[in-house]
Amino acid sequence: WAYAAALLIIIVLVLVTYNNLSYVFNDSRKEKSIIEERIVLESILSHVRSLDSGLRSFNLSASENLLTPYYRGLGGIKRDTIKLKKMLNTKEGPERMLWTDLINRLREKSNQTIREVEKRRLKNDDSVSVAINEQLNLQYTDTLVMHINSLLKSNRETVKQASDKRKDFTKDISYQFFIL
Question: Is the pLDDT of residue 179 over 80?
């Protein structure tokens, strides 16, 4: 009976260990997707800054040559939006709404800057109109940055929680192997 009891204990410990390792593996996959999200969010911030930089330079000089950062930012935002839409498929509930809101804000920002560049090209604006458009552009940028920073903060908290859980599981697995 002693051998049967020892074998039963070993089987139970192996099953529990396997279950814990499975959880750690799934958690690592989730953390990978969270890191990918963080990279896309930081890329969006960079592209929004490029867009604003090119737009400011163009507003000051009206030189088409200074729109290079603007076009780089606009193209980057389009690519990032495609990535966000793919990520949106994995989101549910309130989190999905936050990511949808980000996509909508990016679209609004892009459309507003495109309108601003076209107006400036046509010289269809006066100094008051330019100032209003710049203020509107800053508002779009500020709300986007706040929204992205909020998502990044949530992202960091999720990674920290996952890391803490992994530490606990590592301790459990160590104890189980010690018992074996």
Answer: no
User: Given the structure tokens 């089987």, which residue do they identify?
Assistant: 11
Query: Distance (Å, rounded) from C-alpha 141 to C-alpha 148?
Result: 10
Query: Roughly how many angstroms between the first and final C-alpha of the chain, as a whole number?
Result: 18
Cα torsion 157, 163, 169, 175 to 10°: value is -130
pLDDT in tens, 14-62: 787 777 677 767 777 777 788 888 888 889 989 998 988 888 888 777 7
What is the rounded distance in angstroms from the CA atom of residue 48 to the CA atom of residue 136? 14
- What would the pLDDT profile of 50-80 be if each residue is shown by its tens digit? 988 888 888 777 778 888 898 999 999 999 9
Q: Considering just the CA atoms, what is the radius of gyration of the chain in Å?
A: 25
d(Cα 101, Cα 106) in Å, to the nearest integer? 9
Residue 176 is predicted with a pLDDT of 64
What residues contact residue 106 under an 8 Å CB cut-off, 6+ apart? 44, 77, 80, 81, 84, 144
Nearest residue to 109 (alpha-carbon basis) of 164, 83, 70: 70
Burial class (CB in 10 A: 0-12, 13-18, 19+), 133: buried
97: tokens are 């709404």
| Contact indicator for 115, 121 with CB cutoff of 8 Å | no
